[in-house]
Amino acid sequence: MKALRLDRLLANLGYGSRREVEGLARAGLVRLDGQSLRDASQRVPLDPDLPERMTVQGEALDPLPGVCLMLHKPLGVTCSHKEAGPLVYGLLPERWRRRDPALSTVGRLDKETSGLLLMTDDGALLHRIISPKAKVSKRYRVSLARPLQGDEAAILASGELMLEGEDRPLLPVGMETEDATHCTVMLHEGRYHQVRRMFAALGNHVDALHRDRVGGLALPTDLEAGGYRVLGPGEIASLFAAG
Hints:
The protein has helices at residues 6-12, 18-26, 50-53, 123-130, 152-157, 194-201, 233-238, and strands spanning 3-5, 30-32, 35-36, 43-45, 54-56, 59-60, 68-73, 104-105, 113-120, 138-144, 174-179, 182-187, 206-214, 217-218, 228-230. With 243 residues, it is an alpha+beta fold. Strands 7, 8, 9, 10, 11, 12, 13, 14 and 15 form a nine-stranded mixed beta sheet that branches. Strands 3-2-5-6 form a four-stranded antiparallel beta sheet. Helix 1 (6-12) crosses helix 2. The longest helix has 9 residues, at 18-26. The chain is elongated. The model has no long low-confidence stretch (mean pLDDT 95).
């Protein structure tokens, strides 16, 4: 079982510098199984249940490295560190933004798209999810500016639709019509602004876009916009199940 010095563990989780963590320990504010850990150099085994057994300043320890969470991305926030305006990272506790390894988004949703966004500090998991070999599907609910013509589902399913500026057609896209201006689409790739561009290629315009499923993992109806929660092993496994 891997173990880390207490000061390094808590510093990596964003609780402060090693010196600040040492101060927390000396003050008796770090407890394991009900007992104070006052020596910041003490090595702590990284047991899976450590967050259930350790508290810092009276609160449960944050998830250990290797975390994956789902976030309900609201409209108007971006997934990039480089763009101006509100960022998805600002929806997390400030301490979480100082974690090492850092949390990264698994792919992106553009500023005007809402819905299920995954974040992780596990690089291997991130690449496994986004790898074309994994064939992790993504489902979007689409609101359109103009009524559907009736042939869109067949065209998208054909695997022959070309997007402007590209030299290979889209993989087949599943589509289900809800009414004249609303539908859901299921993608198995993630090209830049793909849903918006493919409906533009079909002569329509996307007014609103919301992602509600990745693989076999659906966005819970009780997770409000801006909210997040940590995924368990079973939920992570469901990402690779057919949606």
